[in-house]
């Protein structure tokens, strides 16, 4: 790769590279982690950054595991990530970094034939993407500056949402408590219209409370400060008690709850409470849209256990499949009681939790033929 100027051999030693970077013009030192296993590509990007005007400090690792170790020690301003590494490949590589270090800005590198993967990576949370062979110093420096600034603004927006939801929660608690007191008072003192207004106000206060709780949970997971304990979790030990808890609701809706659990399924490495939260969201979702049956299936899938929640409802239109896990997206999907309008946050939270476990979540559906939500958690 060339930008038209003569390129000499890049320095072999990190210390020499860092001395050259530090000799740049005064300003804030930018610490870059280059995650790239190809030595020729790494040399090129080293030289491109050295020719830039920003003082920088560059470190290089060759595997995703090494990247996790270095990012865990802190002090990195931006990661430049090759999506094809010896121990991970594709957009999943970005997802694993984003789940573990959500506030680290990432610029992804793709080959000329894989530019669509770069676009997908930006949709999945990368700040920018660069195509190998089409990168010069100006473009690389601009991309890194942009990634850092965009990440800073995203963090500010996240902090604002967290503070705002906390501030809303306190007065909402007071309003909801007052409404509950009114609703519990002597029913003879209210007209039917007044009682209906109180009931509607209570339902909407409950919906708003649910939105706030979910936003706070998403914010907590994204912050990277959540203290989450992982351990060995038996899938059947989570699924069966959960389904028992849903039996009354299923009977009320005239829905059959069925299970198919592989008995010799190995334990998964997970936080049991968070796994339960994901499955409860998926089962509640399935019960809303099923015609007669909801099936929960657990079976081996490569390096992890796949848990599927399948309903026999009307399904999801093809053009809406890609929107399912986006925040505040409310699909116009028909339930047994008409079109259901939810908060648009439950499935987004499921995605956040699954990515935190380095797992995978997706949906398969055909309009008119139900929907199947699949989750894979890695084995312990």
Give the CATH class of the largest domain: Alpha Beta
Shape estimate: globular
Give the low-pLDDT segments. 1-27
Strand fraction equals 15-25%
CATH architecture label name of the largest domain: 2-Layer Sandwich
Report how far the terminal alpha carbons are from each other. 43 Å
Helix count equals 10
Query: CATH topology of the largest domain, which one?
Result: Heat Shock Protein 90
Structural class: alpha/beta
Characterise this structure.
The protein has 380 residues and is α/β, with parallel strands linked by helices. It has three domains: 14-152, Rossmann fold, CATH 3.40.50.2300; 154-222; 231-378, Heat Shock Protein 90. It contains ten helices and 16 strands. The protein has helices at 14-22, 39-50, 64-72, 91-100, 115-123, 137-183, 192-222, 235-252, 272-289, 346-356; strands spanning 30-35, 56-61, 78-82, 84-85, 88-89, 106-110, 128-131, 231-233, 256-261, 268-270, 293-301, 304-311, 333-335, 338-340, 360-365, 371-378. Strands 2-1-3-6-7 form a five-stranded parallel β-sheet, sandwiched between helices. A five-stranded mixed β-sheet has the order 9-11-12-16-15.
